[in-house]
């Protein structure tokens, strides 16, 4: 089992891949979006990606790199996205369908500096790998993205896909 976790910001897209025990397998990012975009994956040579002008473009670069390195996005068991605000309706990790995506899109004004990027990447990943469940991590507080998204996958996707990690007190 493999899970992909995405965290989109205004100038970067961070990604990490975990196994079914939610152990980190790899991490990378497309940084410098809007200035000098660069793809960097730990343990691999980086490269400039000057055509990247948005986090959604960065997602396409990351997805291509993953596919070229044996991790086709359509083969993941689930994809988690850090989404900073879900209003009062979405306060826990949620597997996103078209209706939920629409609801979240309507909340962009609650976090206009953050939500457009995360929701754009969520929409694009749902297009790239439509058969893979995409879970939005909707934290009540801003927890570190990897912890938030890993918990999101464990809570949002029912067994036998993944066993939840022990919750820290």
Describe the structure.
The chain has 169 residues and is of the alpha+beta class. It has one domain (2-156): ATPase, nucleotide binding domain (Nucleotidyltransferase, domain 5). 28% of the residues lie in helices and 23% in strands. The protein is built from 4 helices and 8 strands. The chain has an 8-stranded mixed sheet, with helices on both faces. It is globular and about 45 Å long. The two termini are 27 Å apart. The model is unreliable at 161-169 (pLDDT under 50).
Total helical elements: 4
Pick out the low-confidence regions. Answer: 161-169
Strand content: 15-25%
Might you state the CATH topology name? Nucleotidyltransferase, domain 5
Distinctive features:
single chain, 169 residues, alpha+beta, eight-stranded mixed beta sheet
Lay out the secondary structure.
Blueprint: E1 2-8, E2 13-19, E3 24-31, E4 38-41, E5 47-48, H1 55-68, E6 78-82, E7 94-95, H2 98-105, H3 115-128, E8 134-137, H4 145-156
Parallel strand pairs: 1-6, 6-8
Antiparallel strand pairs: 1-2, 2-3, 3-4, 4-5, 7-8
Helix pairs in contact: 1-3
Entry summary:
The chain has 169 residues and is an alpha+beta fold.
